[in-house]
Structure formats: structure tokens, C-alpha cells
Amino acid sequence: MxxxxxxxxxxxxxxxxxxxxxxxxxxxxxSVASIGGYDNDGLTSxxxxxSSVSPSSVPQAxxxxxxxxxxxxxxLGTSFAAGDFGSKSDTTILTSALGARLRLGNWGxxxxxxxxxxxxxxxxxxxxxxxxxxxxxxxxxxxxVYSGLGDLTLGGSFTFIPKxxxxxxxxxxxxxxSTASKISGLSSGENDYSLGADISVPVGKxxxxxxxxxxxxxxxxxxxxxxxxxxxxxxxYALSNKSFLLLxxxxxxxxxRLVSNSHEVFVGASTKVRGxxxxxxGYATAGLSSGAAAASGGLAxxxxxxxxFGKR
Length: 312
Hints:
two-stranded antiparallel sheet; mainly beta; globular; 12-stranded antiparallel barrel
């Protein structure tokens, strides 16, 4: 098996391959996505501004504002991935992540904190948005188990919609702060950063998108990590004004030359839970290279705090 991790849309990170992240929409009075009678309270790119899919990045990516300038959301997701990443030894990663998103007009703020359990002979660290970063294969004689809280990721974004245009642009930045205990074996002990841009063009029920990000990974005392790009392209389809499907391709440069780059296909679905402020999202991935998991999947539940306190 190839690459690991993905949950509730586990997308982003910095390492062996991580790809996906967050796409958020906005417009002051009416969202561009509402063209054709569909308020896109759903999916765009699961991979904007980060570098892979994860339990926190997916919920952020699938939740789009329904014409609201201000919103606050919480999400909880869990994902499981397993693969050999070209190392000929199995790695399994279980990730649960708590995420938060605040939107004020065209500005957005995000935060995520993961709990991870990694069983592997290889060196794997927490990446941006709870995405695992595979640094080197088979660095131990037997599989070891590492578990605990991973590193905190903070992000900011600005969404721009040109006047009289259906095109939506989002520019974002993220910082993974080394908050995990070094003895946990989950953290590189260094901070990672990424800058990204997203473009989407809603056309009726379909919203094509493309995203690009560039990661800056902190070197460890043992490894010099590679800075590099991650990208994705795909489209979402509105089944209704509350439910969406998403199909996309993701690429990410590996953190070191000891492992391969990641290429994978992502498919997801998201729906609002009727009569509640909750949204349920699920996904699966299929690896196209040895740097990606042969298969992975996850579930996430998010809540709109404004809806939760009586706003409908």
C-alpha cells in the first residue's frame, strides 16, 4: 500500500505527500455559488492552501457559506490510512482532529489540533492540518507505536470575487506550530508553513476548481526537508441545495528524496443533517503512486454554531 491518511477529509500536510485543504466561499450579499438556484453550502476543493487531505482540512473544504458574511463552525473528524509508501513495510495511521473555522466577511481563520496513532517502521511526523509527513522509510528494525496529540495548525484566508464575474479566488496561508511533545515521536520539533491560492467557477450545479500551494518545511537535526508544491483539480456537483459530491486529483511533492511524490484520486460526499445545524461528510482516496496510500477514508461531523443557537 502506498500513502496514508485521510479523514473526514483528511487533507494537507507536509511530507511524503499531502494534498488538500480548504476552500471557502464568500460574497457580501449573494454567494456566486448560488447561481442556478443552488446555494453552495457544500464542497469546493479539499485541497486548497495545504498539501493533503485530513480530518480537519476536509470539513473546512466542504463547508461553504450560504450567502453569510459571518459564521463560526466546529468539526470533529476521524480517518484511517494504511500503506507501505514504497518501503515494503506497512504503516497505519489513525487520526482524529478537532477543527474550528471563523469567517468575518471575506476573511477566514482556521485552527486544528489532531490526536494521532502511528504504527510504523518509518519516520512519520504530524504535518499541516493533521496530515502525516513521511520523511524516511524503514528507520527502525520493527514497527513502533506512537500516539498522542499532534501539532497545532493555524490558518488565514482572504476570498476575492471580481465584480460581475462568477470566478472566485481565495488566497491563504497556514502555519503548523510544533506543540506536540518531542518524546511522543509525532512531531518534527520544527514549524512548517504554506501559502496557497484557489480558483473556482460555479456553473449551475457544477463547480470546477483548481488549487495550488507551496510548503516550507522545517529541517530536523537528522533530515533536510524539501520545500515544494502541492496541487489539486476537480469539480463538485450539487445533488440538492444541501448535498454535494466531489471528485478531484491531488499531487504533492515528497518531503525528502527517500520517498516518492504523492498522486491520488479523491471522492467525497457531504450533506446537511435535516432539521439540525450538523453536516456529515465522508470520503475515500485511491493512490496512483507509491507515495500515496493505496486507499484511505474518513468521516467528519461539523456544526454551524449560528444555526446551533437558533439561527435557521
